[in-house]
Specification:
Number of helices: 4
Strand content: under 5%
Number of strands: 0
Helix content: over 70%
Length: about 140
């Protein structure tokens, strides 16, 4: 084998080695980038769930329409996030069903709060009517000789 053939063969082996290393590094970098995207999606989801918990506690404390709307908007954001992210990890863990169960429970709770407010108002109205009636009775009693 001549010297030129040996150099060509050695150079070919070096080029082939570089190509293999390049492919391995390229695939590794792509895998890391994909892992980073998945990690960022999961961090975002965790943040959304944390905010849902916070907004729910705010609603439970104040029972305001603004807090109720914040909870409902956060439910929609989480649902959209789960639907828009690739993969099925959230589905495998049952998150969509858990989110739906939470929404159903929250809907029932808000209905009960509204019903409670209605009954509270009725109770106040009835007390006010009774108070006015008792005042009228007292005034009538004072008028009679």
């Amino acid at each position: 084998m001549s010297l030129i053939k040996k150099f060509s063969l050695g150079f070919g082996v070096i080029i082939a080695t570089f190509l293999v290393v390049f492919v391995v590094v390229f695939l590794g970098v792509r895998k890391i980038e994909n892992s980073k995207v998945v990690f960022n999606d999961q961090v975002r989801l965790k943040d959304l769930v944390f905010r849902l918990d916070l907004y729910t506690k705010d609603y439970l404390l104040r029972e305001s329409k603004q807090d109720e709307n914040s909870v409902r908007q956060m439910i929609q954001k989480i649902h959209h996030h789960i639907e828009s992210t690739p993969g099925t990890l959230e589905e495998d863990l049952g998150m969509p069903q858990d989110l739906q169960n939470f929404k159903n429970t929250f809907d029932r709770y808000t209905q009960l709060v509204e019903l409670s407010k209605k009954y509270e108002q009725q109770a106040h109205d009835n007390i006010n009517k009774a108070r006015r009636a008792s005042e009228m009775l007292r005034e009538n009693a004072l008028k009679e000789p």
